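Submission sheet (multi-component)
Chains listed below:
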Amino acid sequence: MSDERGGEVIKGTLDMIVLEVLQQGSMHGWGITELIERRSERLLSVNQGSLYPTLYRLVARGWISSEWKTSDNNRQARYYTITRLGRKQLASARAQWEKLSRGVNLILSGAHG
Amino acid sequence: MTLRQWWARLRGTMRRDALEREMEREMQFHLDMAARRNVERGMSPETAKREARLVFGSAEEFKEAGRDAYRARTAENVVADVRFALRSMRRAPAFTVAAILTVALGIGASTAMFTVVNAVLLRPLPIPQPDDFTYVGWVWAKGGDIPALTSLQYEFVREHSRSLEALASYRTEESFVGDESAAQSIRGLRVAGDFLRTVGFTPRLGRFFDVRELQVGEPAVMLADDVWRTRFAADAAILGRQIRLAGTPHTVVGVLPPEFRFPPAPGNVGYLAPLVITVDPADEGHNTNVIGRLRSGLSDEQRAADVRALSDAFRSAHPSLAAAGEGFRLYTHGDVFVEGSRRQALWVLFGAVSLVLLIGCANTATLLLVRASARQREIAVRASIGATPGRIVQQLLTEGLVLSLMAAALGLALAVAALRVFLAAAPNALPPGTDMGLDVRVLGYAIGVSVITGVVFGLVAAGPALSARPHAALLGGTRGATSGHGRMREALVLLETAVAVVLLCGAALLGASFAHLVGVDPGFDPDRVVAVRLGRLPPEYDSGRRDRLVNRLLERIRNIPGVEQAAAAPSLPFERGRNFPVDIAERPDLAIGAVELRIVSPGYRATLAVPLRGGRDFGDVDVAGAEPVAIVNEAFARHFWKDASPLDRYIQIGHFKDRWINPRLEYQTRVIGVVADIREIGLNRAAKPTVLLPRRAGSDGTPLLLVRGPTRELVRTLRNVVVTEESQLAPSVEPLSAVMGRSVAEPRFRALLIGAFAGFGVLLAGVGIYGVIASVVQQRRREIGLRIALGANRAAVVTAVVRRCLVNVGGGALAGLVVFWATRRVLSTMLFEISPGDPRAVTLAISVLAFVAAFASWIPARRAAHIDPASSLRE
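Outcome: structure written.
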């Protein structure tokens, strides 16, 4: 399912993006979609059909944890928090991503030059 | 559904419901927030809501994703772990096969042994309300008891007991059913009283015997279900028909239910026929087997009180037949058939097989340790990419469990096969009525053992895995941090050695004991003797006609060329014969309640080649009407007269003047001879006091014939000789040595079994020692190579490597000896003429172990000595 307001997140990078967003602090599912859109300057958008499965999978792997808390507007919402393991995972994923994107960039810019 | 299952299901449902509810709430929150933003962007509340829903997509899809993730959280890891375990097992096939085989053999052997323990000691009898089933016997005031009654006592209990709601008697026999041409006789029961109700069954067809049949012995028969099916094609019209039983027509009155079992009878029961019990106060032998069914709901105290009241009543009714303090006693099946020694033997064997299992597990643990150090790198990698210690332990536990459960599956198959061999090898090693099927308890045992071993394996492997620092492991490969579990491996060698020593000592003792047993002089010469059982005589035979038949047969047999001696006896040596109380006038305090009494024809002693220790044998003068005479055995003579000669003393058999033994005065039977003790009731039992009386006209019972001569020919010809004389007989002919073989079957089997356990245990311990030294040599290759390169003496290097391990073996042997010494008493009831601390057995055990250990260390030590410094340093 694509979203008309922005590009689909590249497969496999959503884990990293979610972890990165949560590194700033605990957040509920809705807040995560909002944050991703805002921080990517609306270049990226997340479709809910893949966000929640991703969240549940990350919980299952022990990278994030969840608990019910009261939100700003006084409603019960499930908040997700990054774990120590999640931070480690994020660090290694980020390193890998940087390598990958630098490589891809080099090739792409090489093709022009 | 049990309460527990119900609870588990309820909790599972509740957890699923909670998950669904949470997801719903989460979705609702998301939708509300999205709708609110849409309103902020200027949509109408209705459109905002619809738009939010549209963007969110299918709620069902969302929930399904959630459910998947939830399931994955629990199942994914386990599935992945199991798959990983299988993959890593495939990668190391040699290790896997060795480990699974070792543990499977251990689990298989111990499960087989546990099945036997379960069947003999733990399982209830295979009859309805087994706790109310009882045997009735008699206790003498002077000590001793017997699980049988006199006919008079049986009748008395039947009439007067309040706590027994049914009482019966039985005797086993073997007979031809139907056509004699159906060449095999089958085992059946003669039964008296309320037999079927006592055992707890009702007929499948027809009825049990009626009063007339039971009291007069009218020829009637009940068939067992399988006999009815195989011989009479399950024909329901068989009721009322006449079939031949032991050659005479009997009316079929009923068919037993298929689940009918009779625990006291060895093997299956093929038919029931009435047993007439003639109540004769003069018959003081305790020769009536009595079983009863207790009224349910009575407390033990009430039962005991009733037995006491019954004994008092019997004493006041028959004061001459029961002294003060004598009385009835109730026995359980175990009391009668599972003697204390057998109970203990089973537990000892079970202990031995558990020790083998322990060695097997220690061995596998050593293998796992070796593998764990080889896998330190792999585990370090996994830890460094984020696997938690818990997750790694979970993975290793799964591997251990996969290993042990595979071993358990194989082990169970092995156990079933082993039991089949067990039953074939030792049909007499188990008490009658033993049901050897696998049941929940056996399966529970096998699964429990394998789960425990699996967990232990997992934890053993986890030790080095978790202690490894990823950094060091990654840098140093397998060479680094090994000293920690090196110590653990040494401890395992110590354990294995200790256990092997205990097993070896036990095996050496039981082996020596068995050698003594087969070497024991039975008091007679069973070789070249053949026993002929005549079977049941046709009813038209009275005692006179029977005696004439026996005499004619003996005459004919003595005339067969090659036959040296022939005699009639009431039963075989080793079989319980009939018993009577015996006393002497000068020492009434020495009276014995049950003396083995054998009424034999002249020539009995000579046929069995029992040495005559004094006096004379029976002769042709000892006929009816002549002076009553007896021959006693040495045990009898010792009991009554110590070292004095028993010759020409007088004994009294029974408290009454028995009509056919002693027709005239009390204390009239004169001792005319003393024979050597025969081990009458088993080679491992001391001889019981026994009296031989001459067979005379009118003696009761159909005797069996013993014939000394060329065994092989006699076994072939004697059956024809008997059938020619009386065509209605169905005799069975068997060499006496075969009967003797059966009597040592159980001790032989024990010795064999524990010998096999010990052999297996020592082999495993040897493999363990070999494995440890081999891996030490492997790990220290560089160091050894370096030393040799620097000029060290090869022998010294090897000694240095092997010494440490041998120190552990020595320590283990010492620990094993200490343990054995502390527990040696448990063996004492299983041993025959050897003390449990016999130094020869201990020496033998230690030498075997030393040999195995030396051999196991020699191979890797040799490899160490031949290490080529140039190549090992370059590695």
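Remark: The radius of gyration of chain A is 16 Å.
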